[in-house]
Amino acid sequence: MINFIKHLPKVELHLHIEGSLEPELMFQLAKRNHISIPYSSPEEVRSAYQFDNLQSFLDIYYQGAEVLIHEQDFFDLTWAYMLRCQEDNVIHTEIFFDPQTHTERGIKFETVINGISAALVQAEKELGISSQLIMCFLRHLDEHSAFTTLEQALPFKDKIIAVGLDSSEKGHPPEKFARVFAQAREHGFLTVAHAGEEGPAQNIWDCLNLLKTARIDHGVRCDEDQDLVSTLAQKQVPLTVCPLSNIKLKVFNDMSQHNIVNLLRAGVCVTINSDDPAYFGGYMNDNFIAVADAHQMSKQELAQMSINAINGSFIAPQAKDDLIMSVRHYAATH
CA angle 166-282-310, nearest 5°? Predict the structure, then answer.
């Protein structure tokens, strides 16, 4: 099954580019940019990646991002992730970036997006991996900051497919950003949002109804509300689930307790993703293998995860059909 997973064509819909900053690259950029970091080696950084909850992870995540200063840094970060995509047979990826993490430090919006975009363009050309970029608002910051970020994004609309909502879910419900999302939709952006990771099932309803999101990032707490599960299945609302992240942040204690396979079998459009792979110990293949190891799954079910991700993606319809055909052909012949 591991061999089947490794060569299965995959689509990733939930990846924070800042969360793919491996300790080795963190040290390299810190040295290049003369930034002091409170660790003496990449191994020491890795040993610090023990988290009690989402906030304990976010604290170290924002600290790590401080080594990203120049356009080249954002290029190098993104290029390293795209090489991992090639390794894991990810054929399309939709990447989150958090401009406020950088603009709050005095880094220009254009520095961030131009560095990331240049790597994505090169990856399509040289690696054959297509991609989309999703700009997230940090929900622990205020509405005014989100509106400012939206304004900064407008000159780069051709590079951004959607807006999203991430960071601390507790205490920052979706309605806090309803007006920003409404304005983003008026400008033609699609919308997604993190919900139902640490927050209740109601947050998922509110993202769908107030923010008009095309999909829900995480969403695993939907099973607290069976009406919600039925609605998600009926409307085929994609959930971008991140299994290893959920274990690392104690959403579930053990992968065998994870509800992703139950949701799949209930007809929900669940997908497998890596979230912040440098911090949570695994990229796409690692996440697929972890789920398959903990649950008795057929090859068809694993392939369905890829098909769900293609259906849930922002790829053009004809390209979706072609990718689905390639996944079905692979599953039928391996």
Answer: 65
Written as six digits, the tokens of 151 are 């304004």
CA distance 239 to 268: 8
- Radius of gyration of the chain, Cα coordinates, nearest whole angstrom: 19
Query: What is the side-by-side strand order in the sheet with 190-195?
Result: 10-16, 90-97, 130-138, 162-166, 190-195, 215-218, 239-241, 270-272
Q: Respond yes or no: is residue 151 known to be catalytic.
A: no
Amino acid (one-letter) located at 98: D
- Which is nearest to 240 in space by CA: 254, 255, 225, 222? 222
Residue 2 to residue 301: CA distance in whole angstroms: 14
**Nearest alpha-carbon partner for 218 in 176, 279, 272, 154:** 272
Nearest of 137, 263, 154, 264 to residue 194 by alpha carbon: 137
User: Residues in the chain, how many?
Assistant: 334
pLDDT in tens, 25-74: 998 999 999 998 888 888 888 887 878 788 888 888 888 899 999 999 99
In angstroms, the CA 182 to CA 198 distance is 24
Q: How far apart are CA 83 and CA 65, in angstroms?
A: 20
Cβ–Cβ < 8 Å for 308, 270: yes
Taking the C-alpha atoms of residue 118 and residue 8, their distance in angstroms, rounded to an integer, is 27
pTM over 0.85: yes
Which one from 197, 198, 224, 301 is the annotated catalytic residue? 197
- What is d(CA 67, CA 76) in angstroms, rounded to the nearest whole number? 12
